[in-house]
Amino acid sequence: xxxxxxxxxxxxxxxxxxxxxxxxxxxxxxxxxxxxxxxxxxxxxxxxxxxxxxxxxxxxxxxxxxxxxxxxxxxxxxxxxxxxxxxxxxxxxxxxxxxxxxxxxxxxxxxxxxxxxxxxxxxxxxxxxxxxxxxxxxxxxxxxxxxxxxxxxxxxxxxxxxxxxxxxxxxxxxxxxxxxxxxxxxxxxxxxxxxxxxxxxxxxxxxxxxxxxxxxxxxxxxxxxxxxxxxxxxxxxxxxxxxxxxxxxxxxxxxxxxxxxxxxxxxxxxxxxxxxxxxxxxxxxxxxxxxxxxxxxxxxxxxxxxxxxxxxxxxxxxxxxxxxxxxxxxxxxxxxxxxxxxxxxxxxxxxxxxxxxxxxxxxxxx
Length: 366
Known about the structure:
The chain is an alpha/beta fold and 366 residues long. The chain has two domains: 227 residues, Aspartate Aminotransferase, domain 2; 126 residues, Alpha-Beta Complex (Aspartate Aminotransferase, domain 1), CATH 3.90.1150.10. Helices cover 43% and strands 15% of the residues. It has twelve helices and 13 strands. The strands form three sheets. A seven-stranded mixed sheet has the order 1-9-8-7-4-2-3, with helices on both faces. A four-stranded antiparallel sheet has the order 10-11-13-12, with helices on one face. Helix 3 links the parallel strand 2 and strand 3. Helix 10 packs across helix 11. The longest helix has 22 residues. It starts with 11 loop residues before the first helix and ends with a helix. The mean pLDDT is 96.
């Protein structure tokens, strides 16, 4: 019999320890709820807990997840002000400040930190300061950014911070977490439309678990996923979070430098300052389908972390997912070598550029 089939039940104390490790990773003293499902669960739970008829939300759209959040907010009866920017750039704190000034009734802001689907990342520290000055709550989707770039939940004024373990953390997809500030708890508790006795209810977790002293779990946890989450948190702690972040930044810098040296594709997000460390997106030239290119690359090497963009971007954007264990120079080399072969370009200059960028990024981080 497999040793994983006869594990003793996960205890409440062990569950609480994992929550505390998540809180440390997020640099927060707020309550953390580890939810038993992938990250769309706490994202929707946070929105449905905080949004209601009569509320006004600023929904920052820098990729497909921002579009999803807008749909959820509207379904809650909230008035939604969309602040949309091109998917190949980042939103600025100035743009957010202008939107808040034009709509003084805004009391909730939804923002994605890093959009792995489009390869951009947003300046949360600066945006958080603007949102806090306005007095609104800030919900942050940090699923793709956690462990790939700094995430200072309390210092940045993030009220609801949602993460998942499956990207830069190198952990499981079946569990996720959300930190909830005191301000956010007050908002959710005052919302008569907030879910109760529901899988989407954060209040149920607060009452039955957090406020009850975390001694009795409300239901049977996803044991293997929780153990995997604990293991990846321990691995990050052992490696050192700064080192994990540095590897992701180096992978992004090396990939971008190598692709520029190849000359056949270009970074989809042209400004390095707006590029996410978790994944690099590439724009294919006219006549070269990203979907076809991705299929060709995977025929050459089935282990490459590449895929075509989603939806309307499927023909023009290739995504390189250098996160988790793939945040490595060997992954960058393999991707660039396959790209060179698929597009008829020489690989030597690209690999040299990648090596130089990798070394420079790690030197800067150190």
